[in-house]
Amino acid sequence: MEFGGNPLYSCRNCRSPLALVDDLLSKNFIAKSGKAYLFQHAMNIVLGPKKDKQLMTGVFSIANIYCSKCGEELGWKYVQAYDLKNRFKEGKFVLEKLKMVQEY
Fold first, then answer.
1. Which terminal Cβ of the chain has fewer Cβ within 10 Å, N or C?
2. How far apart are CA 14 and CA 25, in angstroms?
């Protein structure tokens, strides 16, 4: 599947497009299920309630993200970083690798 001619990541459950490969910022993140990727943008998602959480790199205000088609929990969105060195993460999305498939 292509989205505007660009390869993308889709929900492993329902194949709903989640993020473009061009929006991938880092593959160096860890989530509940293991490896996770940081994206500039995500699509076809629903945000859960905002909450403060201690993560490996500090305290953040985050919102869990879910597939808008099947409801699968996919990762989280960084809403706010309480440490200046982590502010670059604000507004970005972490998607768990095991919850996605890459499509070309």
1. C
2. 24
Of 86, 69, 89, nearest in space to 11 by CA: 69
Q: In this predicted model, what pLDDT tens digit does every residue of 61-80 receive, in sequence order?
A: 999 999 999 999 999 999 99
CA distances from 102 to 37, 46, 49, 51, 66 (A): 12, 20, 28, 29, 18
CB 1 within 8 A of CB 17: yes
Task: Say how many C-beta atoms besides its own lie within 10 A of residue 85's C-beta.
Answer: 9
pLDDT over 80 (residue 2): no
Rounded Cα gap, residues 29 and 78, in angstroms: 13
What's the angle, vertex CA 22, arms to CA 35 and CA 42, rounded to 5?
65
| CB half-sphere exposure, 50, CA atoms < 13 A | 9
The answer, as to whether pTM is greater than 0.90, is yes
